[in-house]
User: Fold this.
Amino acid sequence: MARVYRFWGPVRCSRPSGAALLRCPQTPSAGVSALALGLQRFWGPVRCSRPSGAALLRCPQTPSATTSAPALGLLALAVILVGGPAAAHDRTTSYSTWEMRGREARVTVRLADLDVSRFPWATAPDGARQLAAYLTQHLRLAAGATACPVTDGPRALDGTAGRQVWEWTVTCPDERDLWIESDVLLDVAPSHLHFARVTRDGAAGPERVLSAGERVWRLDDPSARGSSIASYVVLGIEHIATGYDHLAFLAALLLIAGSLGEVARIVTGFTAAHSLTLALAVLGWVRPERAPIEALIGLSIALVATENVWLAGARGRALPGVVAGALAGLALVAAAGVGRVPAVTLAGLALFAACYFPLLRRVTRPAALRWGLAFLFGLVHGFGFAAVLVDARLETTRLARALVGFNTGVEVGQLAVVALVWPLLQVAIRRRGGLVEVGSAAVAGLGLFWFVTRAYG
Assistant:
């Protein structure tokens, strides 16, 4: 038997009885090295021949091995150009506080500029007036069958960067059988979540998450109190299921994971990191701005997918140089005040890329570094997860319950995705050549689309 070394370790090739060719078992990785027998392949099994008098084997090219860099680049560009519909599926959230005193309620609503920009009239000269009317029509308080009319406002208040705050007052004909209904943003973002929190006569009250599946909160119904820990578990699962950027990142990591042990290390690194930053952000110890975080999530997807393409190919110097140079250029552009991602962050990523790829070239098993990469970018994704709870402004006792439930739901959803997707990827990789490169190019294009639209759109 001949022994051939590849990216994920040694491969043992055998010569069937009476056969003139070696037969090498299939592997999930890119590129068996030419160090031993001149074997170059991505997809197997491969039948190799030894020409008369030659010291090296000759192996047929496979579709993956011949996939050109220009073709992969065109695929990534195509995904960028048609990626518009993906932006419509980002998880969006808004928040309201209802301060009730007798028959009167003061309503304060907070929502993101990015979410408001989904409306076609958002940039119109009278966009603010239309938004005010929209909010009062789509976020309502009613007593029985009678809607409570607006008696003061609405007016815009000073908000934090990237956030709008609106306030108005409603007066109800009765204090009994009150209910809140929200369909805010559901017409432009069907997966939108609205967090409503109620106080009565100054006493802190519960909060509830309203969505397309549950638009009404009956305040006086004992069976419909604030959201429970189970509700937050479901919310975490839904956040993963509809968080297509997080799913794309997991797919990029799993595309080149060749064994169950590697999958376990990657998932553990990603989980530990995002759980840490999720807790730090929700507890108020670290509060990064939302826009740069969302942009960096897109960039992390593009970088991991690009690394996949590099590992599956010849692992030359050109692609790492392009990545590091592009990041350095973006840092210079950010230093000039363009974009939402700080220049120091982009410069740090450029330095990281310049060091990381040469390190990958030197180590015997580059796969061992993937958990570290998953941990690094998991820190960024944790802040993205936290955005759902940060602006809810929950009481301390309810915050702990929401954090535990939401993080549990995220982990359950993530493990379910991994358990479903990774075996399917392995089956697909065994049956079709080039999936790692082509799939990674598509994911890279999607990540770049998210980065550009979130950082510069």
About this structure: Confidence is low (pLDDT under 50) at residues 1-11, 26-46, 60-69, 84-89. The chain has three domains: 1-66, 69-88+243-456, 93-232. Residues 82 and 169 are 43 Å apart (CA to CA). Residues 396-431 form the longest helix (36 residues).
